Fold this protein.
Amino acid sequence: MKQKLQHWVLILICGSMLWLGLGCQQQASGEVEQPRIRHVLERLSFGVTPEQMQQVEATGIEAYIQSQLSPESIQESPKLENSLAQLDLIQADPIELSKKYYLGQRRINKNLEISNETKNKLQKQNQKQNQKIRQQAVDSRLLRAINSPRQLQEVMVDFWFNHFNVFALKKSTILWLADYEQKIRTHALGNFRDLLAVTAHHPAMLIYLDNELNTDPNSSVAKGQFKGLNENYARELMELHTLGVDGGYTQADVVALARILTGWSVDHFDKQENENGFFFYENRHDSGDKIFLGQKIPRSGIEEGEQALDILAAHPATARFISYKLAQYFVADEPPSSLVDLLAKKFLESDGNIKVVLDTLIHSPEFNSSEYYAKKFKTPYQYIVSLVRTGGIENPNFKRMQGMIAQLGMPTYLCATPNGYKNTQDAWLNPDGMLRRIGFATAIANGSLNKEYSLDADKLRHNLGDLSPKTQQVIAKNPPGLSNALMLGSPEAMYR
Amino acid sequence: MKRRKFLTAASLATAGMLIPVGLNSWVAKGIAQPTNRKRLVVIFLRGAIDGLNVVIPHQEADYYKARPTLAIPYPQEKNGAIDLDGFFGLHPDLQDLMPLWKKGNLAFIHASGSSADTRSHFDAQDYMESGTPGVKSTSDGWMNRLLGQLPKERPTQALNVGTSTPRILKGMMPIANLNPGKNSTVAIPTDHAHINKAFSSLYDGDDLLSKAYQEGHQAREIILKELGQEMMYASRGASIASSFVDDAAEVAKLMEGDAKTQLAFMEIGGWDSHINQQLIFKKYLPDLGRGLATLVKGLDSIYPDTTIVVMSEFGRTVKENGNNGTDHGHGNVMFLLGGSIRGGKVYGEWQGLGESALYEGRDLPVTTDFREAIALILQQHLSISDDRLAKIFPGYQLTGNINFMA
C-alpha cells in the first residue's frame, strides 16, 4: 500500500515536472518528446504560453497540431473578439471609407469656393483618419497575434501578408488594409489559388502595385494617369507571388500578363456598387489575343486574367517557390532541398492545398530534426510579441509595442517594397538592432508595457523552457532585479 | 548581414586570431588600404521640395507666368531671390548658404533626379535610396553598399540620424544610429553600468549575438563620449532650436572627432506643399540653411575632405495649383557642398520652361540622373574604382556629362 502510494506520488511529481518543462529522468520518452513539443509550439505560434503547454499535456502534441491546422475548429477567445469589436474603423466597410476619403480629396482639389484654410483642415482630417485606421489595424494584428488560440493561423497571416505585401502609405491602400488582411486570414490555410484570387482582385494590391492604372495605350480612354500599360503588378505577380525570379518567364511574359490585366482596377467612388471595390473596366482592356508562358490566351475580357491566375497557381515553379519560402519560414534560413522537393510535390498533388503542405512540413524528418531546434532568429515582430506572450503581460500598451517593433526596423504595414519583410537572421541581426533588443527587453522587464503588471521570474523561467547553463550562471551572479531583463534579453528568448 | 560575411567573421574568431572582439571582428577587414579621411553626408528632403522655388530661374518669363502667386520675386525686389549667377537666384530664406556660394564651395544641379517616371513619393524615394530606379526588388540601399566597398573602420563609420534605419542604409553592413532631436543623448538601458555589465557577461562569447551586442555597445559608447555633456547643454537649451540644426552639429562632431564617422545620412520631412507652400517654406527652409551652415562650421578640420549632398525624390509642377501649392512633378534641384566641390555654379542642362521643353508638358525634365552626381562623388572623392562602383549602382554607367569635382 505504502509502495503504491509512493509510486503514485512519483508519477504525479514526474507529471508536474514534465508540465513544468523540466523533463523527468524516469520518463525516457518524455525526454525525447519534450524538446520536440517545445519546437512545434515555438514554430507554430508566437511564443509558448502555459495554456498551450497544458493543452498539449491534455490532448497530446498531434491533436494540437491537427487542431491548429483547422483553425475553424478552435473557438476564438471571446475576450479577443470583444476587444476587436471595439475597433470601429477595422469593422467599417472599406467602400464607405474610400468614398468618403475620395469625396473629401475631390473637394480639396476641385472646389475653388472653399478657402485654403478649410482645405488645410480637410486635408488634416483625412490624414488623421488614416493614422487612426493604421493604429487600429496594428492593434488588431497585435491583439490576435498575442491572444488568439488560433496561433498557426496568425503565424500564416504573418507569412502571407509579407508574401503578398502591400504598403499602408501608398495612396489610399490604408483604407483597404484591414479588409485585405482579413481575407488573407480566411484563406491562410486554405487553397493557394483562392488566396491568389483574393489578392489579385483586392483594391489594396491593385492600388499598391499600380494595376488600377494599367490601361491599353490604344484604348479610347487612355489619357492622364491611365495613359498606358503599367507592368508593375504583372511583374511582381510572377516574380514575388508565384513563379519566383528564376521561374522561367521572360520580359515578353511580363508584357503579356500586363496586357491581360489591363482594366483590373478599383472603383474608388463605388459608382458600380460592386461589393468588393474591384471593377473590371472593359474600356481600358487590351482586346487583342495574347501569348502567355507559351499558351495562347484568346481575348475574353476579364476571363483572360482568371486563366492567367490558373496557369500561375498550377505552375511547378510556383509550387517550388512557395515550398521554399514555407520551409525557410518554418524550418531554416537555408532550408534542406529534400524538404523543398517534398513540399513542392505535395503542393502540386493537392492543387495548392496549404493545409496539406503544412501538415507534410510539420511531420517531415527535416522539421523534426533537432539540429534545427531553436535556430530561427526571431524577426522584431516575432520577438516583441513573444516577450508579451512568454511574459504573460496582460493588456500591454500596443502603441509602445508598435514603437518598439518599428524602431527595430519592422514597422507593421510599412514595408515599402513588395517583397515584404524577410524572416532570416541575416536580415535582422546587427549591432544596432541587438542593442535595441536588449534595451526593450530591459524596459519590458521594468513594466514599460504595463506598469500594473510585474513579471514573475519563476513563471518566466518556466515559460522560456530550458535556459542554457551560461544564461543561468549570469542570472545567478547578477542582482535579482535584473533576472527578468536577462531572461527577456537572452539568446533563448531571441531564437525560436 | 550576408551569411558569407558572417561566416568569415565567425571563422576568424574561432580560428583564435588575436583580434580584440569588437572593433574589427564584426566583419573581416577589407583589402588593406590607408585610412580614408574622405567624408560624405547625404541629406534627404522627404516629400519632394519645390526646387524651382529654391534655385529660382529668375530670368525665365515662363516661371513668373506659371506662378502668379508663388513665384519668388526678382532679386532686386522685396523678398526677392538672392542672385547667384545672373540667371538663377537662391530663395531668400537660404541666405545662410551665401557665404559658401561666394567661397566657391556650393553648387547646384538643376533639372536633376531619378530616371523613373513615378510621381509616388514612396516609389520615388525608394528608387533614390536603393539606387536602382525602376527595380523594386533591390533589398539594400546604395549607402550601405558603398559602406561595403570601403575599408572597415570603427563601428561608427556609418551613421544614421533617425529612429530606425532608412532604406538608403539598409543592408548587410552594420551602421550606427543617432536618435534625432532632443533624444540623441537620452540614456538607453545599456548606458547604465550595471545593466551593461550583466549583458556584457551574457554576451561575451564568439557567437553572432555576442559580437553584435559588443559592437553595438561600442558604437554607443563612442557616440556618447564624443557628444558628451558639453553637447547636451550647448545647443539643446534654446526652446526654438530646430532639431535639424542640432542634429547637424552632432553629426559634424562625430565626423570630425574620434568616432571617425565617414558616411552620414540625415533627413528632413514635410516638403509636400500641395497647399499653402509659402507657410511650409517659412517653416522649414531657414532651418535647412542654418543646419547646413552649422554642419560646415562643425566639420572644421575635416571640412576640406567632406562632400555634402542634399536631394529630394522629385520636383513639383512648374505651374502652381489652385491651392497656393504645387503638385508632384519630375526634375528637381540637388545641392552639392564641400571642400572639393567646384562651386559657385549651377550645373545641369537647362532647357527652359516653355511647355514643349517640359516633361509631359508640365514638369521640369530630368536632364541629369542623380546617380551621375553621386557616382562622380564616389569615384573622385571616395576613390571608388569602377568595378566597385558597378556594385553600388548596378547597371549605371557614368556619362561624364558634368564635372563639379575640383
